[in-house]
Amino acid sequence: MIRRLAALTFAVLVLVAPFAAADTPKVIADGHIDMGPRFVDGKWTVQIRDDTVSPTEWRDLSDVVVQVPDAAKTQIPSDAVYGFLGVAGSPVWLLPQVQRPGVVWPGWNTQDPEVVAKVGREVTWRLGGVRGPGTFVLFLSGNFGAPQVIFDSSKPYPQETGIEANTHVHGNWAFSAPGTYLLDIEMTGTANDGKALADRRTLRVHVGDDRPEQVFDVATSTTASPPTPVAVSGEAQPFPWAWVGGGAVVLLGVVVVVVALRRRTRG
Q1: Which of 15, 99, 240, 251 makes a 20 to 30 Å CA pair with 108?
Q2: pTM listed for this prediction
Q3: pLDDT recorded at residue 218
Q4: Rounded CA gap, 187 and 198, in Å?
């Protein structure tokens, strides 16, 4: 009984422990991170929660480059359900939905205590455009049924999905070519008092092992540009696609909550 109480106390302390704020630029290539809204000095702000350090730190998106290393390179499988990724056998750099050692594990959450307290129901995550050398696809995989595509940079913008308040989700992040990608993202919500909440940022992603720190110098823009074909060399490494399909949604917290996701496209 004492051990169980001690374990519960530790879990609660971890959940309510304060987070440090960081303003030092950092390339994150391994470990767990989340993107989500929080209130910073009373202002609704989209930030990166960095769990690769202890204590956990919240970082501005301008101070983070998410690196997709060459260890994440694989081939699109022949299974027709993955046809939205491209031609079977073509290379793809994939950050899977289930944590895999050696690559970053990015998710998104709406669990900031102030967000939970002040936002009535849902947060909208909007993709306004993608600049990069290839296509970007974010999709969910479950134990049953076909993958659910959330964002696809080959489709018209803007695209958006709804995230229930107080949830934590992971998906599969796929990139078709090495190089730098700039994702124009916005998260919006409505406060309990009816006030509109919105913040628009650029998420920097670098695919490949070559000098990811150079992406900090890339000028950001909210204007999307079409993918530019690039030459791809080298053999794709065997990839355990079981990492993609296992566990559709990851939830953190004392109370298990239901996640409702939808994908909407405005043409």
Answers
A1: 240
A2: 0.79
A3: 85
A4: 6
